[in-house]
Amino acid sequence: MNRHLLAASDGSAHSHRALEYAAELYRNVDDIDITIITVAQPVPRYLQAGFSTGAGELNRLGLIDDFLSTRESECRKILEAGVGCLIRSGFPEERIRTKEIVRSKGIAHDILFEARIGKYDAILAGTRGISNVSAFLTGSVSKDLVKYGKNIPVWLVADKSKAPCNVLIAVDACQECLRVLDHAAFALAGVTRAQITVFHVIPRFRPFISSEEKMKFDEIERFVTKTAEKEVKDLLSETKDIFSAAGLNSENVEIRIKQGTTGVASDILHEYKHGGYGTLIAGRRGIGGWEALIPGSVSDRLMNSIDRGAIWIVE
User: What domains sit in the chain, N to C, each tagged with a CATH number?
Assistant: First the structure.
C-alpha cells in the first residue's frame, strides 16, 4: 500500500509551495499518493437561522443554494490549479487525487476528520494563505491542525527551499523522541538524496547565583551535562538502525549533540537556519529539559519561527 499525504490547498501561492515541496521531496519515489483537499468557508451565520415566514425561508434556502453553487465552482478551480501545480513540479498525475468539502462544519475540523477517516500518513499545508474561499492557512487554522491533530503528523511549508532533502530532526532525551524518528524514517524511505542530522540540545540552566557559588555550580553543570550526554547517546544508539531498516543509507545519518547556549528553541533554529536544511522535524509535545516544563513551548516557537522550508510536527 502506498504512503498517502493529505494536502490542504486554498489556491494561494503558499499552498502551491507546499505542493511543490512534496513533489521535490518525493521526486523518483514511486509509492507516494497525494490527495489535495479544499474546504469552502461555512455558510454565513445570517443564512443559518430559519425565517418565521414561508417566503422568507424559501428566499433563505435559495441564497444558500447560490452560495454553495458558487463555492463548489471555486473549490473545483482550486483543485484543478493544485493538480496542475503538482504535475508541473514533476509529480505523476496518476498518483494525484482530489477532495472538495463544500458544506463545511469548520475548516480545520473537516481536514482533520478527512485525515482520520482516510487514514492518511500526514497532513501537508502551507503556513498561510490568501483565498476568500478557504483561507485556512492564515495562521489560526494551521495552528489548529497541529493543536488538535493528535496522532496525525502535520507538515507545514513556509517557503521554497533548495534542499528539502537536507533534514534536521530535533529530538528530546525521552522515549517519545523515538516516535519522531520512526515517522521520519517511514516518511523519508525511498528518498535516496536524504541527508539526515539527528540533533539534541542539552539544556543549559543558569539560576541567579552569587560569584562565590559560581565555581561550585560550574562543576555541577559539567557533571549534569556529562550524564545527560551519556543518556542521550544510549537513547539514540539505534538511530541509524531505524533509518537503515527503512532502506536509507546509514552513512547519510549523523547524530549531533550540543551543549545549549541561549535556549533549546534558539539553538535548534540557529542550526536549522545556518546548516543549509530544508526540512525540520520535531515532536509536538515540546523539546528539551527545563523548557519542556511547558509542553509544546519549544515546538510552538519552532513552528512560528520557520520562514523557509518545512517543519513537520509529530506526536
Answer: 3-159 (3.40.50.620), 166-314 (3.40.50.620)
